[in-house]
Amino acid sequence: MAGSDEAEKPDMAWRLIGAVVALGVGYATRKAIEFGWRKTTGKKPPADPNSLETGLAEAVGFAVVLGVGMEVARIVATRSAHKRYQAWKAIPEKAERVIKS
């Protein structure tokens, strides 16, 4: 029974690593998207998309680009970090098997 509980919950180290990766990637991605928006449109990204001074098309366009871009970056970074974490975690297990044999 204890094994099934452990399989369902990620360990605390991975939770912490995943959170740090997501925060870092989120910050970097937002800055990259804002930079790309400035280069593409020649304007600063809308600071407040709810403002009536911002055009509807511009507000929706920025929201879509930012939302999709950030989610894709988060998924890719989290999956990559998880694969590396699993490989790193497997090293002691492999070493233990070698020592026992």
Automatic annotation (TrEMBL):
The keyword Transmembrane helix applies. The chain crosses the membrane at residues 12-29. It comes from the Bacteria. Keywords: Membrane, Transmembrane, Transmembrane helix. The keyword Membrane applies. Pfam families: DUF4235 (PF14019). This is DUF4235 domain-containing protein. The lineage of its organism: Bacteria, Bacillati, Actinomycetota, Actinomycetes, Streptosporangiales.
